[in-house]
From TrEMBL:
Keyword set, alphabetical order: Repeat, TPR repeat
Entries under InterPro entries matching the protein: C-type_cytochrome_biogenesis, TPR-like_helical_dom_sf, TPR_CcmH_CycH, TPR_rpt
CC terms in the record's Gene Ontology section: plasma membrane
TPR repeats: 54-87
Keyword Repeat included in the entry's annotation: yes
Protein name: C-type cytochrome biogenesis protein CcmI
Native source species: Pseudomonas aeruginosa
């Protein structure tokens, strides 16, 4: 009984407190997107799953800029700037997005 119970409890604990969300994100980004819209959707899901990722917000902002979505890019870069300690590169991208929004 213990031989069956221990792995099940371990799996339950991992799914609750583990990194299963990161594994799922890695799996999603392992395949190349078929379109820019698909890539944007992936990045949006990534920042929803990991809202404290400055890199995620930065890349989402860059993606929005390539789609000429300046206002969306500005919001993404603003969040990236907050999370990254106001890195000059991020601040520059944010300013550019604000200009084009």
């Amino acid at each position: 009984v213990a031989a069956l119970l221990v792995p099940l409890v371990a799996l339950g604990l991992y799914l609750h407190w583990g990194a299963s969300d990161k594994v799922e994100l890695a799996r999603e980004f392992a395949q190349a997107p078929h379109s820019m819209e698909e890539m944007t959707a992936r990045l949006e899901r990534a920042v929803q799953a990991q809202p404290d990722s400055a890199q995620g917000w930065y890349f989402l902002g860059r993606t929005y800029m390539t789609q000429e979505r300046g206002a969306d890019a500005a919001r993404a870069f603003e969040r990236a700037a907050e999370l990254s300690g106001r890195q000059p590169e991020v601040l520059g991208q944010w300013a550019q997005a604000l200009y084009f929004s």
